[in-house]
Each structure stands twice: as C-alpha cells, then as structure tokens.
Known about the structure:
Blueprint lengths: L12 H10 L8 E3 L2 E8 L7 E8 L3 E7 L8 H14 L4 E4 L5 E8 L5 H17 L1 H8 L16 H11 L6
Amino acid sequence: MSFADPTFARVSPLDVEGWLTELGIAPQQRQERDAIASWDLDLDGRRRFDVSATVILDPALALIVWVHFAPPIGDGFRKSYRRLLRWNDEFPFVKFAIAEDERPVLTIEIPIARADRDELGLALARTLAVCDRLLEEAAAWLWYDGRVPTRGDRISRQVGLFARYADRLGELIDS
C-alpha cells in the first residue's frame, strides 16, 4: 500500500493530536524529522504514576506507542533479559525490548491502515495497564530501595481512558 493508492487512509500529525485531545491527553510539543512526528506524554496508570511515553507517527508505516518502562538496567543482564522475554510471552499485545541506552521499553505498533483514535487510546490504556500489572516485579528497576511508593489519595489522570476501554482490557485490569 502506498500514498498513491486512493484507498490508503493517510494519518496526519493533526489527526493524532486531535485523537489525543479527544482522549483527554495533553501531549508536549510535536517534534518532526524526516516526515516522522512524535509527541512525549506524561501518563498515569491506575497504580503507577508519571509514566513517560512517546507516540511516534510514521505516516507510511505505523503509529507507535513507546513507553519508557524503566531506567537503564544495572543488574545482571541475563536475569533481566529472561524477565523481559517472559513478559513478552505473557502479554502478547505488547512487546518489551532494550533501547540503545539499556533502558527497558514497552511498545505497541498500530499498522497505519488501522490507526485511529480508538486504536491509539486502547494502545495507551493497554501499556499503562501492563505497567500497573508489573509494578511490584519492576520495583527494583524503578526505585532505588525497590519499594513501590504509597500513592496516597492521588488519582490517575487517565481514569477516563481506563473507563473508555475497560471492556477491551479484560484481565489486565481485573486486579
């Protein structure tokens, strides 16, 4: 499929910004380079707060949600890699990898032909739900003392996102 194909539904950066607004998410300023656009987001899970994510639009290929899952791994890599591989098996709709700076990342790719507001919203909700689900297992990567901080009376900024896609998140939010 190419842009020359009249059936190809082109997705523009303005579309993505509109979808984020409709989902109640305020992105930071758009960055563009070589026809690729990206937006940094600060999101909250239901239990894990201040999750850094980037939405990347390659209008010829995909819309990608890239979650900065944890700081660079400093422990025995073999153990960490086994954990990431296990998570890739347990969560088939997301993929874990290691970025160039040794930071674990969590991604979802939406083929451009399927990219729309609800696919983006579901991808964001799904990544946040996985972050919540793995909170205790990842605590040693996320905090120096390895303990999950108490959330007090803080409420997720994405409560509406979870409500909107709850029926499609299934067991990820049944905890």
